[in-house]
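name: query_chain
kind: protein
chains: 1
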Amino acid sequence: MRVAVSLMALAASALVLSACGKSGGGADQPASTSEPAAAAAPTPAQLKALVATLPAPYNGGDLANGELKFNQCRACHTPEQGGANMVGPNLWGVFGRKAGSVAGFNYSDGLKASGVTWDAPTIDKWITDPHAMVPDTRMSFMGIKDAKDRVDVVAYLKTVTTAPAP
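structure:
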């Protein structure tokens, strides 16, 4: 009986606390709009247009497979605009960016001195074997060996690191 009463009290407290963060005093009062709206997801047409900007074979990448294969990258990287640097740097805006240039990320000297500017073929080469490209990189990733998977990752990466045209 005592356990049941404690559980009911805990549940009631959770209900009350969950309502505390909500703005607006009731059904007749509108909720506050002070929170920024989430960016709208790109439309299929916008995704197709982004992928079409890539050279062949990347412009034919399978985005669903690219997303699946990119999940292993998410352990160290965020692709979203404003995303945090983690073990690896945030990847937003990576296409056309000079390697080793994300502010606030501590890159290896080799990567900073590599002179690499990220484009589809360079990213493909990098994710094949980062240590073959920059021997003293601190990136511990062993690479994606399947060429089709890399094409798909590059196409997917383009769609999640580049703002679509309106």
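note: The chain is about 40% helix and 0% strand.
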